[in-house]
Amino acid sequence: MIYTLHIANKRYSSWSMRPWVLLKALNIPFEEKLHLLQEDLSTQRAAYLSFSPTSKVPCLVDNDNQAIIHDSLAIVEYLAEDVPAVWPSDKLARAFARCAAAEMHSGFSAIRNECSMNVALRIELGTPSEALQRDIDRLAELFNEGISKFGGPWIAGKEFSAADAFYAPIASRCKTFGIQLAGPAGEYVDRLYEHPAVQAWVEDGIVEAGILARCEADCIQGRKVLKNLGEQQILDFMGL
């Protein structure tokens, strides 16, 4: 199979991150097509329509079969048709992993709205809203349940799966906003963040061009920026 994955900025695009991390983690060959977000949304939509019927990312193109798959969950299910390792082999673990991925796909609105992804920043969160705290508590509950039931180190057992890829942006958000999960859940977040595929995405995002004022503002929301890793990386390169 020859796949092309269309994505947006690695600094911001949590939806793009999920299938990209999965493809990398499972060593599935693909060509990356990066389309930087634009300040003007109407211009961006028009540009994205050239490769995506919804004008959104991610969008996977199966060049062999001339197929276009334009939703992150649909992408992983499409990949699973040819790569069984996308999901756990055990029936119960596979069901749990699918439930976890679907919950991330449709839920956790507070953490999406209040803690937008920005891999390069470290931000002082302050006191979470009630809605955000509920999301944080649910993440801890879900991660602890998966580790307890299936033994880890990943959310549904010994092997990295699509469910882990779906929570990779959550691991990034936890680092950006200093969100701490207790016990096995916190250990899982650290392990997920340090996965080589996740780190490859984060490292690219830190030095990526195309920083957008609207995306930075959406992430910061008037809070204190503690560190910009992009600036630090430039200083490290210069030996300062």
What is the CATH C-level name of the largest domain? Mainly Alpha
Helical content stands at: 40-55%
Poorly predicted spans: 234-240
Q: Tell me the fraction of residues in β-strands, as a range.
A: 5-15%
Strand order of the largest sheet: 2-1-3-4
CATH architecture of the largest domain: Up-down Bundle
Overall 3D geometry? globular
Q: Could you report the average pLDDT, rounded to the nearest whole number? A: 95
Number of strands: 6
- What structural class do you assign from the helix and strand content? alpha+beta
Mind describing the biggest β-sheet? 4 strands, mixed
**Number of helical segments with 4 or more residues:** 11
Q: Distance N terminus to C terminus? A: 46 Å
Order of helices and strands: EHEHEEHHHEHHHHHEH
Number of domains: 2
CATH topology of the largest domain: Glutathione S-transferase Yfyf (Class Pi), Chain A, domain 2
Q: Specify Rg, calculated over alpha carbons.
A: 18 Å
InterPro entries: Glutathione-S-Trfase_C_sf (IPR036282), Glutathione_S-Trfase (IPR040079), Glutathione_S-Trfase_N (IPR004045), Thioredoxin-like_sf (IPR036249)
GO biological process, one term: glutathione metabolic process
GO molecular function: glutathione transferase activity; maleylacetoacetate isomerase activity
Pfam families: GST_C_2, GST_N_2
